[in-house]
From TrEMBL, chain A:
Organism: Bos mutus grunniens
PANTHER family: ADAPTIN, ALPHA/GAMMA/EPSILON
Keywords, sorted A to Z: Cytoplasmic vesicle, Golgi apparatus, Membrane, Protein transport, Transport
InterPro entries reported for this sequence: Adaptor_Complx_Large_Subunit, AP1_complex_gsu, ARM-like, ARM-type_fold, Clathrin/coatomer_adapt-like_N, Clathrin_a/b/g-adaptin_app_Ig, Clathrin_app_Ig-like_sf, GAE_dom
The GAE domain, residue ranges: 665-780
Mode of membrane association: Peripheral membrane protein
Protein name: AP-1 complex subunit gamma
CC annotations in GO: AP-1 adaptor complex; synapse
TrEMBL record, chain B:
Membrane topology per record: Peripheral membrane protein
GO biological process, one term: intracellular protein transport
Alphabetized UniProt keyword annotations: Coated pit, Cytoplasmic vesicle, Golgi apparatus, Membrane, Protein transport, Transport
Organism of provenance: Bos mutus grunniens (Wild yak)
Protein name from the UniProt record: AP complex subunit sigma
GO molecular function: clathrin adaptor activity
Subcellular localization(s) per the UniProt record: Cytoplasmic vesicle membrane; Golgi apparatus; Membrane, Clathrin-coated pit
Organism lineage string: Eukaryota, Metazoa, Chordata, Craniata, Vertebrata
Length: 785, 160
């Protein structure tokens, strides 16, 4: 059997010689069989070799668990060769999860107490690599003893083993804390390094330890200063920097000790400045130390001048040709941008340059940092840069870039027009990557800026004419064209180049959108509605539009079909209502909590807060005919007069178009009255707990040029109802869309009878007294059912 | 944290783990990380974020040296660490190349274990580390010599 046992190198050669995976497996399987046999039969001379081969095979990914016991045997053997391989095997094959690992505890214990230095070293190393909590607890006393051994070789290893033990079993800190102070006085770099690491570990785990070790700050400062100023022997230096590993470790400990502690921080200030200025930065080693210094400065309570120095160092890093250093700088600056904003701002140009890095991780960092640096003074320039970047950046960064630009625009937009322009540009460049609410936001923005309607619609029209693939852009454009189509055809607008648009072109464009494969159903909805609105905005016959509606009346998509059918009905039967239904939207207040997605034009938003004077968004609701006045207006409420029979008409409820049902289904608002700019809207709430109660909020808004004063609204209901009018919010409705007046009506309907409501209004407007009496018709069924 | 060495073809040459994870989990992590690192273009920086760790890697000839460190560790000094390890290997093998590491993988481990322990640097002096290895090798040879076996025992001689 021994004869066929290969040398390790030969085995490796053979495995590498295998041409196929299958061949390799064959060789390995054969060899493993030998190895297994050899373990079984016990071949003390060669077992280390067998194990070594097994470890190689393990590294290639083949199972090797049958070697675990062999590791134990080898560790227990007195020969150094055996131990060496045995411990290596233990580190590779045994880990906490294996039951076998505890078995080596004993061997380790023996080796730690009786072995020669090298063996002690092996044992310590293994312990620190794979020692489990139980092992650590068992062996802690041994390790502690070794901390006092004369040989620095063993001591340095013992210290690091202690670090591992504390990580596994924090309670052991008590054992290892006392020796630290002594160990700090060591001259041997390895021990010093280990000790500093140990102290760092102790401090990170326990505030008490942190307190305790603050007193060593002066000593650490001294050690570091010596390192930096007087240097050390060549063997510890790396490219001219004295023991950078030690420096970095000390700096890190100082950072922890100085955090939130004035006194310690003060002690370190000078030293940090010294390190920062004296470190040679031509090579990576120096930069590593400098970087750690910067991190430390930023984290402790350092002097302001020092902080500025740190930021400047980072700025210099940014200019470094080494990509790694730039990366590190960007990451750190990002952390600092909140606390030291102005200092970081100074490096803005460099940061922006980094946007163009081919390396994705760098450009991502640069993007984040650039976005954080945008403020009101540099927003125009920055947005310019960012948009340039957006055009050429890799796809995974696009979404972030787009949202970032939009957010920045929202926060810092100098003018509305700039804001609209910016959003427009973002939509054209990266429309598919923007968030969903960008569409709604833009619509709201445009809707609210009356002076920009003409401008917006022109720009959107041109953009749309070029490209109908970017859905958010198409949606906004379609909406705009629908709303402000007349402005589009008017011809002149100072802010854009003259654009001659024919009615037919506009219709053709919208039709293209409707028919295009790229358009989503929602987009088509927008386009359909826009076409409909144009029927009132544009002059001339509407045959074309009618045709489209008829076609879509049989469209597959339910939503589109419904819309088309209803629009059709509007054309055919209710033409007289069309103008009113498709009226322009009033100016929207920004930030209203009920932003309606215009796509679902007919989806009403229930106004839940009864008394809050929020402007309701008037939907294109039906304008009710002022029906024949009922005779005898009644005064406040309690004695309702007999009412005429309801007109038995069944007008289609445009309001009943399918909306995404929201539980509880909101009752559509109703516009009941309009005259010379004064509008009256009703909004309804049926509180879920009381089915017989209906709350109506009457909202009066005034878009005319003159105030409406002495406004009084009275209501009447059928006998079976109980009505209660609450005090109105005021009796003046200021002009030009000022805050509306609201009044709450409470109606109890115990019999669930059909609701009828008559309103009487008296007010002064434009110097005239006005009195209006009318019945509110077509109250939604939900108000009383 | 852990350290991996692998070739451009995705063959693992060394793996040192300072975290307790299962074999299966380790294999998965190695595969994943190898993919990510091998996909990096030459001009990209040496750092990347992976899972919740930071990974520092450097390519020397045909081998990738990969170190995974924690969030608060200094990436630049880790680069120095990798470089120091390569220097040690170089000194020991005399102009090390990938083949040396393949055929003498256990030596590579021994050297690493003299330089790092538990994931932290034990000794910052190249001389000291190399001396320790030398001594250990001597011990090993002493072990062998009384036998005077013509066949070279077990682990290979670095004089190859």
């Amino acid at each position: 059997m021994v004869a066929s046992s290969l040398k390790l190198q030969d085995l490796i050669q053979e495995i590498r010689g295998a041409k196929t995976q299958a061949q390799e497996r064959e060789v390995i399987q054969k060899e493993c069989a030998h190895i297994r046999a050899s373990f079984r039969d016990g071949d003390p001379l060669h077992s280390h070799r067998q194990l070594a081969k097994l470890l190689y095979v393990h590294m290639l990914g083949y199972p090797a668990h049958f070697g675990q016991m062999e590791c134990l045997k080898l560790i227990a053997s007195p020969r150094f060769t055996d131990k060496r391989v045995g411990y290596l095997g233990a580190m590779l094959l045994l880990d906490e999860r294996q039951d076998a690992h505890l078995l080596i505890t004993n061997s380790i214990k023996n080796d730690l107490s009786q072995g020669i230095e090298a063996v002690q070293g092996l044992a310590l190393c293994t312990l620190s690599a794979m020692g489990s909590a139980e092992m650590c607890r068992d062996l802690a006393p041994e390790v502690e003893k070794l901390l006092l051994q004369p040989s620095p070789y063993v001591r340095k290893k013992a210290v690091l083993t202690a670090v591992h033990m504390i990580r596994k079993v924090p309670e052991l800190s008590d054992i290892f804390l006392p020796p630290c102070a002594q160990l700090l006085h060591e001259r041997h770099h390895g021990i010093l390094l280990g000790t500093v690491t140990l102290i760092t570990e102790l401090c990170e785990r326990s505030p008490a330890a942190l307190q305790h070790f603050r007193k060593v700050v002066p000593q650490l400062v001294h050690t570091l200063r010596t390192l930096v100023m007087t240097g050390c022997s060549a063997e510890h230096s790396v490219s001219g920097v004295s023991d950078p590993f030690l420096q970095v470790q000390i700096l890190r400990l100082l950072r922890i000790l100085g955090r939130n502690h004035e006194e310690s921080s003060e002690t370190m200030n000078d030293l940090l400045a010294q390190v920062a200025t004296n470190t040679d930065t031509s090579r990576n080693a120096g930069n590593a130390v400098l970087f750690e210094t910067v991190l430390t400065i930023m984290d402790i309570r350092s002097a302001a001048g020092l902080r500025v120095l740190a930021v400047n160092i980072l700025g210099r890093f940014l200019l470094n040709s080494d990509r790694n250093i730039r990366y590190v700088a960007l990451t750190s600056l990002l952390k600092l941008v909140q606390s030291d904003h102005s200092a970081v701002q100074r490096h803005r140009p460099t940061v922006v340059e980094c946007l163009w890095e081919p390396d994705a991780s760098l450009s991502r960092r640069a993007l984040e940092l650039s976005l954080a640096l945008v403020n009101s003074s540099n927003v125009r320039a920055m947005t310019q840069e960012l948009q340039g970047f957006l055009e050429s950046c890799p796809p995974d960064l696009r979404a972030d870039c787009a949202s970032g630009i939009l957010l920045a625009a929202e926060r810092f937009a100098p003018t509305k027009r700039w804001h609209i322009d910016t959003i427009l540009r973002v939509l054209t460049t990266a429309g598919t990557y923007v968030r969903d609410d960008a569409v709604a936001n833009l619509i709201q923005l445009i809707g609210g800026a009356q002076e920009l309607h003409a401008y917006s619609v022109r720009r959107l029209y041109s953009a749309l004419a070029e490209d109908i693939s970017q859905q958010p852009l198409v949606q906004v454009a379609a909406w705009c064209i629908g709303e402000y189509g007349d402005l589009l055809l008017e011809g002149t607008c100072e802010e854009t180049e003259p654009l001659q648009v024919e009615k037919e072109e506009v219709l053709a464009l919208l039709e293209r959108v409707l028919q295009s494969q790229m358009s989503l159903p929602a987009t088509r909805g927008y386009a359909l509605t826009a076409l409909m609105k144009l029927s009132t905005r544009l002059h001339g016959d509407n045959n074309r539009i009618c045709q489209v509606m008829s076609i879509y009346g049989s469209c597959q998509n339910v939503e589109l079909q419904q819309r088309a059918v209803e629009y059709n009905a509007l054309f055919r039967k209710y033409d007289h209502l069309r103008a009113a239904v498709l009226e322009k939207m009033p100016l929207v207040e920004r930030g209203g909590p009920q932003v309606d997605e215009e796509a679902k034009e007919s989806k009403e938003v229930a106004q839940l807060s009864e008394a809050a004077p929020l402007p309701t968004e008037t939907q294109a609701s039906k304008l009710l005919d002022l029906l024949d006045l009922l005779d005898g207006p009644s005064e406040n409420a309690q004695h309702p007069p007999p009412l005429d029979p309801t007109p038995g008409d069944t007008l289609i409820h445009l309001l009943d178009l399918p909306c995404a049902p929201r539980p509880p289904a909101p009752i559509p608002n109703l516009k009941v009255f309009e005259r010379e700019g004064l509008q009256l809207n009703l909004s309804f709430v049926r509180p879920p707990g009381t089915p017989t109660l209906l709350l109506i909020t009457v909202t009066a808004t005034n878009t005319s040029g003159g105030d409406v004063t002495h406004f009084i609204c009275q209501a009447a209901v059928p006998k079976s109802f109980q009505l209660q009018l609450q005090a109105p919010s005021g009796d003046t409705v200021p002009a030009q869309g000022g805050p509306p007046m609201t009044q709450l009506l409470r109606i109890l309907n115990p019999n669930k009878a059909p609701l009828r409501l008559k309103l009487r209004l008296t007010y002064d407007h434009f110097g005239q007294s006005v009195q209006e009496i009318f019945e509110v018709n077509n109250l939604p069924v939900e108000t009383w059912q | 944290r852990f350290m991996l060495l692998f070739s451009r073809q995705g063959k693992l040459r060394l793996q040192k783990w300072y975290l307790a994870t299962s074999d299966k989990e380790r294999k998965k992590m190695v595969r994943e990380l190898m993919q990510v690192v091998l996909a990096r273009k030459p001009k990209m920086c040496s750092f990347l974020e992976w899972r919740d760790l930071k990974v520092v890697y450097k390519r020397y000839a045909s081998l990738y040296f990969c170190c995974a460190i924690e969030g608060q560790d200094n990436e630049l000094i880790t680069l120095e660490l990798i470089h120091r390890y390569v220097e040690l290997l170089d000194k020991y093998f005399g102009s090390v190349c990938e083949l040396d590491i393949i055929f003498n993988f256990e030596k590579a481990y021994f050297i690493l274990d003299e330089f790092l322990m538990g994931g932290d640097v034990q000794d910052t002096s190249k001389k000291s580390v190399l001396k320790a290895i030398e001594q250990a090798d001597l011990l090993q040879e002493e072990d062998e010599s009384p036998r005077n076996d013509p066949e070279e025992m077990g682990l290979a001689n670095p004089s190859q």
